[in-house]
Amino acid sequence: MAATLLPTLSPPVSRAAAFLLLRAPPKPLRTHHHLFRSLLSSASSPSTPATLRSLAPMASAATPDRRDLLMLGIETSCDDTAAAVVRGDGEILSQVVSSQADLLVKYGGVAPKMAEEAHSLAIDQVVQKALDDAHVSESDLSAVAVTVGPGLSLCLRVGVHKARTIAKAFGLPIVGVHHMEAHALVSRLVNKGLDFPFLALLISGGHNLLILAHNLGDYVQLGTTVDDAIGEAYDKSARWLGLDIRKGGGPALEELALEGDPNAIKFRVPMRQHKDCNFSYAGLKTQVRLAIESRNLRCTDGIPISSATAEDRQLRADIAASFQRVAVLHLEERCQRAVEWALKMKPSINNFEVLHQINMLGLA
Q: Coiled-coil regions in this chain (predicted)?
């Protein structure tokens, strides 16, 4: 979502807490292929300034017209198998997701080996359905895009293997996509009026990033995660509170928080003494665990909230609400500082993008 920058940021939207779990540390953001640059530049859009057209040169004069470009995208970085077909002008022709929600519940989170097996079982059907829904075949494609990181290596290789198989069989180029860069740029597919520069907050189970996007492939990282990301804190807190996490720890905790008092427990806001844009949720996560244990809620015993008394449930709801208030406040404070920095570097900036990996069950 995009919002015009104001002197004070308004509170983030409430569903910003449903995240997938990513583990690998972020790598330098980089675009690997001219077709990917072309796809995300949206240079053919009437609302895009002419100056952008020079930012995504095609490889040669023989490259087809943008609308004739067809890209198959494959994503297996963590616990969902996904594929989509996108036209060169940004039109999304199809998108298919196979969820591993049941595995998340069974193993209490992402089990890499089990996730890899689930990807292997689903990948062929997911890709074929994406092609069928778009009414195209592999021979119609211009290229295959696939997530190459960050993510779980066991899971990533399933998608990469599928992409290589298709590319080899049909003589197609492969576009290696940096997961976090894609999140930063994908809003340009659906928001043709979003021009550079813009500030983006990327939040997930494994990463928090604040970046200033100057151009395609040109980013300044203003802040990152120094320990645990917000999604990790939400998921662990939800488990300790005995919540049903089949729809994700974020949505489950948020639902319980609606019943609680956000000021009941005075959790400390992380990193207030640090005058930078970095994020830290390890300390807040520890505060939640100590609050649960001090109230004899026996978080380590896995007592489900369905077995809780009315008084017990209210205590858990107060912890959830207090945690959520501080977790979002930390985001807000870091973003406010990033806005100040970004405006000094790029006074012309007027968009702030909040981009998060949404749990596909119910919140997409």
A: none
